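Deliverable D4.2, example record:
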Amino acid sequence: MRALFWFLTLAALAIGVALLGRLTDGYVLWVLPPWRVELSFNLFVLLQLAILLVVYLLLRLIVNTLRLPGVVAAYRARRARQRRERAASEMLRLFWEGRYSQVLKLAEKFADEKIGAEDASSGWGSAVGGGKATASIAETAPLQRGDSVTAGIVALVALKAAHALRDPRRSAHWQARAAALDQAGWRTARLMAELRIALDGRDFAAARQALEQLGPKERRQISVQRLALRLAQGEGDWAEVLRIARLLEKHHALTPEQARPLRLTAQRGLIASFAEDPARLMRHWQGMTAEERRDAQLARQTAHQLAAAGACAECAELVEEFLDAQWEPALLADYAACPGGDVLGRIAHGEKWLEAHPQDADLLLALGRLCVRHELWGKAQSYLEAALAVAESCAAHIELARLFDRLERPDDANRHYRAAANCQEAASQSRGGRKSV
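Output generated by the structure prediction step:
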């Protein structure tokens, strides 16, 4: 349809010009003695148009001839850029295939000085210098945007490939080349790559240095926070682990199931760090979330450290609060072992628990130990014998033997010592049998 339109338009224009030419009777007279030239006006117009066309074509030819070196250089630069982009794509494919040696060969090929000399306008040559490890990074020249993108991709992929091959020399080489592209917008990407590489190699000092070089805005990103979490775990900075885990859980970067083990591990590390300061440990326990205070392992560790530090009142408070909410017999060992505090009050509290758990051997054993500590010999014997009646226990036999020693009943004491020895021997044989299986 468009062709038909132009055909009709040109035909109408030709007809119009022909009719106009027939209506024009004028002529043009040129006099140059002794010559005299007379032309029709129509021919004069045609000659003028022809001259203008020839002059235009000559000018175009001259201009294009003068521009030819620049056009050729631009064409070669465009072809070189296309080759570099294809090389970058090929490097990415090889990297994800795990062919790291091929990645480095391709990177070195396109970083070679010969390629830079062949492609005079190439940004790769100015971006990363020659392919030799001794090339000076300081001699690099500014890049165009497209060149810096390709050079940055190649440098970072080569850096990761060298790290995967555990080649420190080439890793340092490509790290320096990547650093040369910082002004082209690759600084954050380089620091992130260095941070990951340092964490993989457990070089926490280098990882900390890379993290601190990132700006405040970059450090708030979720991906950076994940790496900071790994760094804090490696450094044993449990307060930072706890903070980051809670932050990532809040922003849904970690599911509750993923965050909970991290939080509990951090809390265990913090509790261990307060072993010499029971007051601070108790404040830390009270500052935990309700979910964390319901964790039996955390409660047992805290109670054990409080008991070891002689903070029996705080230990009893913690255990009583925990066991009143949920039953965990493992806490009773430290509850009974702590020598100070209100022993009689602990016995009374334990007897309340006994109403709800009359067949709990651990509770009966703990009550027996508390009664021994308070010199309630009759009740102690009753509770310890009841514990043995519920479940055979080496600890109960030993406690009864010691009790009978105090009561000067050597025969009963020896009987329970022998029973405890037999119990321990059977337990060790059982463990040995399980290992052999």
